[in-house]
C-alpha cells in the first residue's frame, strides 16, 4: 500500500542550483571510516549486535547516493559519540550477492534508508533530511523517547502543534499494557506523527476533560478535529491512527507544508467540492489521498505541474515515484470514472512540456519535453545538452560560453548544442539524471551518454565534444547544400 500511496508532496526543494559531485566523490572514497560497510555475509551478524542501526542501500552509479555519501559519513562521525552510539551502515544493493538483502528490505530506488532497531526486529523507513546536520537531528529524535509527557498547561501549549496530527494517550496511570502498547506504536510511527501522553485530559485543547479508561485522542487540524479511541492492541491502534489522520480532502493553500497529511480542511462547501468529497470518500483507505486547491492560493502548485489557469478545474494524482496523472478541464461527473480508470491502470502519465518552439534558429537549440525524443534521443547526432533553470545564476553565466561552443559547430551538422529548461519540462526518468543546475550531458550519435564534469570553458567543452563524438565517417558537407 505504501508504494502506491498518493501524496501531494511538493519537491521544489530538491533542485539546487549547481552542484559539486566530483569533489563529493573524492572525499567519500578516501575517508570512509564511521559508516560501516555491510554485505550479505555479515549483515545479520552486525545488525543483531545493534539496538539502533541505520542502513543505506545504495548503488554505485546513483547520483543521489554520491551526494549523500559525505553527509552520511559526517553524520556517522557525529553520532558515533552519541550515548548510546548510533551506528550508520551501507550496503551496495546493486552488487549481485546483496540482491537478496535488497529484496528482503523492499529496496526499489536508491538510496533507500532503513532504521533497524533491537537487533533488526523493528524495521522503519528513514524519512529525514539528506544533509549531515539534518540526519543527526532526525536520528537523535529517533533514539530519544517516542512520546513526551504533558504535565502542565505549558507542556500542552509547547507539545501540541495545532497544525499537525498529534496522538495523545490519556492514561489513569503511566503503566500497564495499554501504556506499553501505546509506546510501541509511538516508536513505530514516530517519524510520521507527534506522540504525547498524559494523565490529565483537562490539559488537552479538545475532547472530554475527564477520561476514566485509557484513551487515545487523535487531534487533527481538519475534519472532525479530534477522535477518541479505546482499543489498545498495537495493530488496531496503528490502523486507527493511519486511517483517521488522512483528511478526506486536503486543501492546498499558500503554505504547503512538508507534512503530507494535512493542511487546512476547506470550509464553505459548494456543489463541486462536495461531489469531490463524495468521490474521496469512495477511495479513502485505498492508497489515494485527495487534494483540493483553490485557484487563487494554488499558483505555485499549478506552476509546478505546468498547468494554466484556463485548464482548471483539474484533478491531479501525484505518485510517490514522481509520475503524474492529470485530468484537465474536468467536469465534476468525470472525476469518479476517470479515477476508476486511473486505479485500473488505464490513464497515461502526464509529462509537463513547454510548447515546441516554432522557430529554433539560435545557435543553442531549444529542446522541450515533447521534442526530446525527436531532437535528442532519436536524432543520431552528437549532442551537448544543458539542463538548466531560468533562475539559476550559474546557468546564466554559462550561457554565453555555450553560445560560443554552438557557433563553433554551426557548420557541423552532426553536432548540436542544446538546452532544456528542466524547471518547465519533465525529464523522463529513464533518460537523464539531473540533480542540480546546470547539468551538462553529452550524448553521442550512437546514444552513449557521458556527463560533462569538466571546466565550463569554451575550449574544454569543445575538446570534450571532439573527444566523444562518433559516427563522423558518414558525414559529408553539412547543411549548406540544403539552401
Ligand atoms: C562485511 O564484509 C565485507 C566483505 O567481506 C567487508 O568489506 C566489511 O568490512 C564487513 N563489515 C563489517 C562491519 O565487518
Ligand atoms: C579546471 O581548471 C583548473 C584550473 O584552471 C585545473 O586545475 C583543473 O585541472 C581543470 N579541470 C579539468 C577537468 O580540466
From TrEMBL:
SUPFAM superfamilies: Thioredoxin-like
Signal peptide coordinates: 1-22
EC number(s) per entry: 5.3.4.1
Annotated ranges, domain Thioredoxin: 19-144, 342-470
Root EC class: isomerase
Main location: endoplasmic reticulum
Protein name per Swiss-Prot or TrEMBL: Protein disulfide-isomerase
Organism: Helianthus annuus
Lineage: Eukaryota, Viridiplantae, Streptophyta, Embryophyta, Tracheophyta
Amino acid at each position: 500500500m505504501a508504494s502506491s500511496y498518493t501524496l501531494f508532496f511538493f519537491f521544489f526543494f530538491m533542485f539546487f542550483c549547481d552542484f559539486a559531485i566530483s569533489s563529493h566523490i573524492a572525499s567519500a572514497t578516501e575517508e570512509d571510516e564511521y559508516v560501516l560497510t555491510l554485505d550479505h555475509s555479515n549483515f545479520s551478524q552486525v545488525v543483531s549486535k545493534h539496538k539502533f542501526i541505520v542502513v543505506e542501500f545504495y548503488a554505485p552509479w546513483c547520483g543521489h547516493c554520491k551526494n549523500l555519501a559525505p553527509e552520511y559519513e559526517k553524520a556517522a562521525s557525529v553520532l558515533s559519540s552519541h550515548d548510546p552510539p548510533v551506528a550508520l551502515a551501507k550496503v551496495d544493493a546493486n552488487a549481485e550477492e546483496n540482491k537478496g538483502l535488497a529484496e528482503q528490505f523492499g529496496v526499489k530506488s536508491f538510496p533507500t534508508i532503513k532504521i533497524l532497531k533491537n537487533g533488526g526486529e523493528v524495521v522503519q523507513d528513514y524519512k529525514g533530511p539528506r544533509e549531515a546536520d539534518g540526519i543527526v537531528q532526525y536520528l537523535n529524535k529517533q533514539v530519544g523517547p517516542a512520546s513526551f509527557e504533558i504535565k502542565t498547561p505549558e507542556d500542552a501549549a509547547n507539545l501540541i502543534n495545532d497544525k499537525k496530527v498529534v496522538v495523545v494517550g490519556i492514561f489513569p496511570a503511566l503503566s500497564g499494557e495499554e501504556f506499553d502498547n501505546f509506546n510501541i506504536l509511538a516508536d513505530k510511527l514516530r517519524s510520521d506523527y507527534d506522540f504525547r501522553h498524559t494523565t490529565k485530559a483537562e490539559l488537552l485543547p479538545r475532547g472530554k476533560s475527564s477520561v476514566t479508561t485509557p484513551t487515545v485522542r487523535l487531534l487533527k487540524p481538519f475534519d472532525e478535529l479530534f477522535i477518541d479511541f479505546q482499543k489498545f492492541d498495537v495493530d488496531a491502534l496503528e490502523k486507527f491512527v493511519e486511517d483517521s489522520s488522512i483528511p478526506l480532502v486536503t486543501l492546498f493553500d499558500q503554505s504547503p507544508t512538508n507534512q503530507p497529511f494535512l493542511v487546512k480542511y476547506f470550509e464553505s462547501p459548494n456543489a463541486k467540492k462536495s461531489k469531490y468529497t463524495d468521490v474521496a470518500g469512495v477511495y479513502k483507505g485505498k492508497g489515494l489521498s485527495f487534494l483540493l486547491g483553490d485557484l487563487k492560493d494554488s499558483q505555485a502548485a499549478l506552476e509546478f505541474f505546468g498547468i494554466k489557469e484556463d485548464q482548471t478545474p483539474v484533478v491531479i494524482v501525484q505518485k510517490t515515484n514522481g509520475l503524474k496523472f492529470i485530468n484537465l478541464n474536468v467536469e465534476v461527473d468525470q472525476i469518479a470514472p476517470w479515477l476508476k480508470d486511473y486505479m485500473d491502470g488505464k490513464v497515461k502519465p502526464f509529462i509537463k512540456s513547454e510548447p515546441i518552439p516554432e522557430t529554433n534558429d539560435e545557435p543553442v537549440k531549444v529542446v522541450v519535453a515533447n521534442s526530446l525524443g525527436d531532437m535528442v534521443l532519436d536524432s543520431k547526432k552528437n549532442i551537448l545538452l544543458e539542463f538548466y533553470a531560468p533562475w539559476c545564476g550559474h546557468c546564466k553565466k554559462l550561457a554565453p560560453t555555450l553560445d560560443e561552443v554552438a557557433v563553433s559547430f554551426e557548420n557541423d551538422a552532426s553536432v548540436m548544442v542544446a538546452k532544456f529548461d528542466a524547471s518547465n519540462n519533465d525529464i523522463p526518468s529513464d533518460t537523464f539524471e539531473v540533480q542540480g543546475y546546470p547539468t551538462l550531458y553529452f550524448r553521442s550519435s550512437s546514444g552513449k551518454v557521458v556527463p560533462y564534469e569538466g571546466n565550463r570553458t569554451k575550449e574544454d567543452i569543445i575538446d570534450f565534444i571532439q573527444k566523444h563524438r562518433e559516427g563522423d565517417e558518414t558525414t559529408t558537407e553539412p547543411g549548406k547544400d540544403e539552401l
